[in-house]
């Protein structure tokens, strides 16, 4: 009897140990780890380079359209009045009175044509930019488009990707650009140019420098204007990105002196992944081709599209 009790107690002890061994151990309590918000800063803050990298990753055997320059819709006010002279000269027997405020919009896209030619970092791109100046609030004159500029171009890009610490020089372009307003005779404006454009980046800063040379030729009407003198001989661009905002400056320099060319100051702040709040100030010659010999001072407010 005593032996049976000992055996029974041993069996009960073995059974309790086995059950405890088979039961899963309780999982330790997880402590949530805060995830830092995504920063707007990337190693390469150049907006054009980011789009080109996207094109290379997505476009292999088909054509894709990518955003090129800024795409925006803005309300613009002319601080010094809109330019009436070109229309008055072209139509002296008609009365014209443009408003000092209007809507302006620009859409711009680029197309990768040939990527990494001969397996070296040389690629060909094409682009088109349309910029329109719309007298939307002029009911009496049926809300006319005061001016529309068309700018197709093509270029060869060399992606050499040089870097010295945080200073980067990702690429250089060699291109051809045409710009015209599609008008006739006295209202016609247009010119052709070849250009070289280099890009740079440093932490939150990105910049580019472009120099162009006007090609000879064109209609007799277009030859009347010295585009390089008034619009400039090239552009210097500087952008600074911080959090969800970006500050930018574009200086169109002229070899004819500081009295020519223009300065553009702009600010954007992301309201969503696709749309930014956008403010721009322009001061100088050639905001549009019809204003090549007119100094415009405009303040514009509206939206900027980031992605398609």
Please explain how this structure is put together.
- The chain has 308 residues and is mainly beta.
- The chain has one domain (47-305): Phospholipase A1 (Outer membrane phospholipase (ompla), Chain C).
- 14% of the residues lie in helices and 45% in strands.
- It contains 4 helices and 15 strands.
- The protein has helices at 2-22, 47-58, 85-90, 227-230; strands at residues 66-67, 71-78, 101-114, 122-134, 145-158, 162-164, 167-169, 172-180, 190-202, 205-214, 234-242, 245-253, 262-270, 275-285, 295-305.
- A 12-stranded antiparallel beta barrel has the order 2-3-4-5-8-9-10-11-12-13-14-15.
- The longest helix is centred in the N-terminal third of the chain and has 21 residues, at 2-22.
- It is globular, with a radius of gyration of 31 Å.
Which CATH architecture would you pick? Beta Barrel
Structural class: mainly beta
Number of helices: 4
The tally of domains stands at 1
By CATH, the superfamily comes out as Phospholipase A1
Quickly name the level 1 CATH class. Mainly Beta
Oligomerization: single chain
* DSSP E strands, number: 15
End-to-end separation: 88 Å
Major sheet summary line: 12 strands, antiparallel, barrel
**CATH topology (fold) name:** Outer membrane phospholipase (ompla), Chain C
Residue share in helix: 10-25%
Which outline best applies?
globular
Rg for CA atoms: 31 Å
Strand order of the largest sheet: 2-3-4-5-8-9-10-11-12-13-14-15
* Mean of pLDDT: 85
Strand content: 35-45%
Order of helices and strands: HHEEHEEEEEEEEHEEEEE
In the predicted model, the low-confidence regions spanning at least 5 consecutive residues are: 1-23, 33-44
